[in-house]
Amino acid sequence: MYRLHDSKLSGNAWKVRLLLSRLGIPFERITYVLPEGKTRQPSFLRMHALGKVPVLETPSGEHLFESNAILCLLAQGTDMLPDGFAHAQVMQWLFFEQSEVLKPFASARYWISIARRAHEKIDEISAWHLAGKRVLSILNTHLATRRFMVAERYSIADIALFVYVSMAPEGGYDLTPFPNVTDWITRIRSQAGFVPLTHEEAVA
């Protein structure tokens, strides 16, 4: 059985849980409270030298980190990762998520809603919002004529982009000007196997 090492509020770990649930793959979830420092202990650092989550432990005992690499591993041979040119398009959006989405959305969310110390990063948050709004505009245009990111089918490209974009309001973003993005977020939430970030969301 797979073992997923994650944390409660990690968006990157949420990506992996969304795919595992979608594919119906059983797994054991090992959740860390990051401030406790357990991901800095030697036993964890042997799995990921940077002490970050998520880490996927395979049934054979191998370890894989980086959320999008984990998505690619799990999606192989399934309808969540198409073949041919569509495969390259999925990879395109996975790279885009890491290079253009992660920093402005995850960082703003952390300082505003998790650390609650936005006053320490006023200039940075302004820059992140500028970059993030550009990303939202790109996605809104792309989704104007599409239901999903690639080949009109739900794929790991959607999962990778959905997580931090859907949490954008926690980072101070207003999604109202991007109706195609908000419709897409609703569409992803309605997919079979969807799981919320936290149990609290599930019972709210």
Automatic annotation (TrEMBL):
Domain GST N-terminal per the UniProt entry, residue ranges: 1-82
Organism name: Pandoraea anhela
A Pfam family this chain is assigned to: GST_N_2
Example of a GO MF term: transferase activity
Keywords: Transferase
InterPro entries in the record: Glutathione-S-Trfase_C-like, Glutathione-S-Trfase_C_sf, Glutathione_S-Trfase, Glutathione_S-Trfase_N, GST_C, Thioredoxin-like_sf
Record has Transferase as a keyword: yes
The keyword Transferase belongs to this UniProt entry's keyword annotation: yes
Protein name as it appears in the record: Glutathione S-transferase
Location of the GST C-terminal domain: 83-204
Top-level lineage group: Bacteria
